[in-house]
Design a protein that fits this description.
The chain has 313 residues and is an alpha/beta fold. It has one domain: UDP-N-acetylmuramoyl-L-alanine:D-glutamate ligase, CATH 3.40.1190. It is built from 9 helices and 15 strands. It has helices at 35-46, 60-71, 120-124, 140-156, 173-185, 194-201, 206-215, 254-267, 272-286, and strands at residues 4-7, 11-19, 28-33, 50-53, 55-57, 75-76, 79-81, 88-93, 100-104, 128-132, 160-163, 189-192, 220-224, 230-234, 237-241. The strands form 3 sheets. The chain has a 9-stranded mixed β-sheet, sandwiched between helices. Helix 1 (35-46) crosses helix 8. The N and C termini lie far apart (42 Å). The relative contact order is 0.13.
C-alpha cells in the first residue's frame, strides 16, 4: 500500500438546518465527522493515496461513514464492531456565530478499537501513519491500539504523523499528557496548538515549546496557531507561515485541513517552507465553507486564494 494510512474514529454527524435552540429545529443534515477521516478526505482531494481504518458499526450510520469516505476516494478498511453502535455528533447553532456540539460516543464502535484489531502488515506497507490524540481518549483499549500502531510503524521504519488534538471534554490535562507525550516522542511529524504544546512540555512560549519538543528528538514540529498562522522547527531550522485572511464561514476542521495540506506537500517532496504554505492555504480555503470536511479543496480550488473576488477580502 502506498500513501498515507490514518487510524481513528469516524462518527455520524447531524447538523441543524437553522439557527436557534435545539428544540426549534425541524430538520438536520446527515454527514460524518472525525479528525482522521477529515484528514483522509483532505489528502484524497489533493491527490495523495490514503487509507482510513477504525471501528465501524454494522448499522445505518456505519454504512454512511464508509460510503462517504469511499465516495471521496479514501480506501476504507473498517474494523467491524459487532454489537456496538456508531458514535454520533449533533451540531446546533443556538445563536449567530455560535456552535454547540453534543457527542454520543460512549462505548461506540470507534471506542471499542483494540490492539488485536490492528493489522501490522497494513501499517508496515504505508508511507506515513497519521494518528491523533482524540482516539486514545475514547477508551483504554483504543489508547492501547493507537500505541501499538505507532510502535509497529516505528519498528517498520514508517514515519508517524501525530496531531495532539487534545479534547478537554474527554480527559484531564494530566491524564492526556501521560498518554500523549509518549506518542509525541515517537513522531516524525508532530502537530500541536500552543496550548497543546504547553500541555506536553510545560513551556509557555512558542520558541521554548519548539525547543523542548525538539529535544525529544522530533525532527518536524509544527505549531498551528489559527489566525496567527504557523511556526515550525524542521531539522533544526525555524520557519514561519502567516495565515491567509479569508471571510471565514466555519473554522471547524481547519486544523485537519492544515495537516492534510502539510502531509500532501511533504509526501511529494516539497521543502519545509512550501509544506507550510500549502498547509495554511488549504486550512484557509476550508474555512470558507460550512462543514467539517465539505470545504476541503482540490489543488485547482486553491487558485481562488490568489484572486480578489472569490475568497479574499
Amino acid at each position: 500500500m502506498s500513501g498515507v494510512l490514518t487510524i481513528g474514529e469516524s462518527m455520524a454527524l447531524l447538523v441543524a438546518d437553522r439557527i436557534g435552540p435545539a428544540a426549534a429545529h425541524s430538520g438536520y443534515r446527515l454527514s460524518i465527522g472525525g479528525a482522521e477521516g477529515n484528514v483522509a478526505i483532505g489528502l484524497a482531494r489533493l491527490g495523495t493515496p490514503v487509507t482510513w481504518t477504525g471501528g465501524v458499526a454494522n448499522d445505518p450510520f456505519g454504512r454512511v461513514i464508509v460510503a462517504t469516505l469511499r465516495g471521496e476516494g479514501v480506501d476504507v478498511r473498517p474494523v467491524a464492531q459487532t454489537g456496538a453502535a456508531s458514535g454520533l455528533m449533533v451540531r446546533t447553532r443556538p445563536l449567530p456565530g455560535r456552535t454547540a456540539v453534543h457527542y454520543y460516543r460512549r462505548d461506540s464502535a470507534g471506542a471499542r478499537l483494540a490492539p488485536d484489531m490492528i493489522d501490522g502488515s497494513v501499517i508496515a506497507a504505508a508511507e506515513i501513519l497519521h494518528v491523533t490524540g482524540i482516539t486514545p481518549a475514547l477508551s483504554e483499549t483504543a489508547a492501547a491500539a493507537i500505541a501499538q500502531a505507532v510502535r509497529v510503524a516505528v519498528a517498520a521504519g514508517v514515519p508517524v504523523s501525530f496531531d495532539v488534538n487534545y479534547r478537554a471534554a474527554l480527559w484531564s490535562p494530566e491524564e492526556a499528557a501521560s498518554v500523549l507525550a509518549p506518542l509525541a516522542r515517537q513522531a516524525a511529524v508532530l502537530f500541536a496548538g500552543p496550548e497543546e504544546a504547553e500541555l506536553l512540555t510545560g513551556a509557555a512560549g512558542g520558541d521554548a515549546q519548539l525547543a523542548a519538543l525538539g529535544a525529544w528528538g522530533v525532527r518536524e514540529i509544527v505549531i498551528k496557531d489559527g489566525a496567527r498562522g504557523a511556526r515550525a522547527l524542521i531539522d533544526g531550522e525555524l520557519f514561519d507561515a502567516p495565515a491567509i485572511v479569508v471571510d471565514a464561514i466555519d473554522t471547524v476542521g481547519a486544523g485537519d485541513a492544515f495537516v492534510a495540506g502539510y502531509l500532501h506537500a511533504r509526501r511529494r517532496g516539497d521543502d519545509p517552507a512550501a509544506r507550510l504554505d500549502l498547509a495554511v492555504r488549504v486550512a484557509a480555503y476550508a474555512c470558507t465553507v460550512e462543514g467539517d470536511w465539505e470545504g476541503l479543496p482540490r489543488e485547482a480550488d486553491l487558485l481562488q486564494l490568489t484572486h480578489d473576488e472569490p475568497v479574499l477580502r
